[in-house]
Write a structure and sequence with these properties.
This is DUF1508 domain-containing protein. InterPro entries: YegP-like_sf (IPR036913). A hairpin with a 5-residue loop joins strand 1 and strand 2. The chain is α+β, with helices and mostly antiparallel strands and 125 residues long. The chain has one domain: PH-domain like, CATH 2.30.29.80. It is globular.
Length: 125
């Protein structure tokens, strides 16, 4: 099952990524001013992928990627793939697993393990 991960960019904007079952990032969203915008886009993707379009792009460097859009507005760009077959596998991963993907929100804390966590209290560093 894939995962949507919401995080904050250095400039304060929010973004989300969709990761594969193996933990690789498949696409990264556009910047959003509010976390609720990310949550709305994720909800829409999970509910009905048929409203979204995948536009495949091949760069001069022979790398492949896709853009995820809705009504002509690009909402996300994929990672770069070495072959069109790998690109299609990335798209298939979204189509097959996005509807049941969990959502993780890392936008509030910069660090998963803070100094006051039990991990550090035990002296394990």
């Amino acid at each position: 099952m894939g995962t949507f991960v919401i995080s904050k960019r250095y400039n304060g904007d929010y973004k989300f990524v969709f990761t594969s079952r193996k933990g690789k990032i498949i696409f990264t969203s556009i910047a959003c001013k509010h976390k609720s915008d990310c949550e709305s886009m994720i909800s829409a993707i999970k509910k009905n992928m048929t409203f979204f379009a995948f536009t495949k792009v091949r760069k001069a460097s022979n790398k492949h990627f896709f853009r995820l859009s809705k009504d002509g507005l690009v909402l996300a760009n994929s990672r770069k793939y070495s072959t069109e077959l790998m690109l299609q596998k990335g798209i298939d991963e979204i189509i097959n697993y996005a509807h049941k993907a969990e959502i993780l929100d890392f936008s509030e804390n910069d660090f998963a393990f803070t100094e006051d966590s039990a991990f550090f209290e035990e002296g394990i560093q």
